[in-house]
Amino acid sequence: MSSLPTDPMPSPPPLAAVRAGVPEHGEPPKYYQVKQKIDAVLEELGPGTPLPTERVFADRFGVSRMTVRQAIRELRLEGRVQRSGRSSVAGRPKLVQPLTLASYTEGVRRQGHRPGRRLVVLEQLPATAALAAALQIAPGAPVFHLERLLLADDEQVGLESTYLSAARFPDLGDEFDPATSLYAYLRTHGVALADADERIETVLASPREVQLIGTSPALPMLLLNRITRDPAGRPVECVRSLYRGDRFSFTAHLTEGR
């Protein structure tokens, strides 16, 4: 299985949009102008520093509190502002997860954060037709469904569901510690991971996912669906990972297609 490189290439810095916020027909909306001004204030504040109140911002910029509220709402969705009780504070930098065949645990730890997982459910289910096709097993064959909350420094940042053939891994339910890395478990059982197909899209979390992750139903989420295979091309796992859009970004190293 490939892992994160020892000396990863630095991620390119985020680039400001050309003529940021200015539509072709004229001035940007007032709330967007305020958003840019508050964003400049955030650059001067350290993560976790409380923001001035809406009233203070409204007086400073000569706008209504409703305009300030809309600007802060967008900054919160982008992860630039976070809630702390009833207050708003400057957000922390996003976790940058590389798109490689490395586990979540390895990726988060490499960034100097403490990874963790909390078990939601570990159960056996009959494979649906779609899941059976993905794992190349018979429809209705038993699969393990491992669902875990993803943690970074004890903060809930995502939800991961992994499906594996119960016939291939019959002892998973008894042997595997859900708080640890599944990929490390597979390695100790002689299973190597060679390649994967992964699809990424933005979604909104379901009511159940909102409750489990403890986030807002309006917060955009990053959904990753992956099928991972061994060196023989045999599927090992199907994974559905849901990450908070305000806490995560992803990077990939690209080469010329042949």
UniProtKB/TrEMBL annotation:
Source species, domain of life: Bacteria
Note down the stretches annotated as region Disordered.
Answer: 1-28
**Keyword check for Transcription regulation:** yes
HTH gntR-type domain: from which residue to which, for each copy? 28-93
Q: Which keywords has UniProt assigned to this entry?
A: DNA-binding, Transcription, Transcription regulation
Q: Which InterPro entries match?
A: Bact_HTH_transcr_reg (IPR050679), Chorismate_lyase_/UTRA_dom_sf (IPR028978), Tscrpt_reg_HTH_GntR (IPR000524), UTRA (IPR011663), WH-like_DNA-bd_sf (IPR036388), WH_DNA-bd_sf (IPR036390)
**Gene3D superfamilies the UniProt entry points to:** Chorismate lyase-like, Winged helix-like DNA-binding domain superfamily/Winged helix DNA-binding domain
The name under which this protein is listed is: GntR family transcriptional regulator
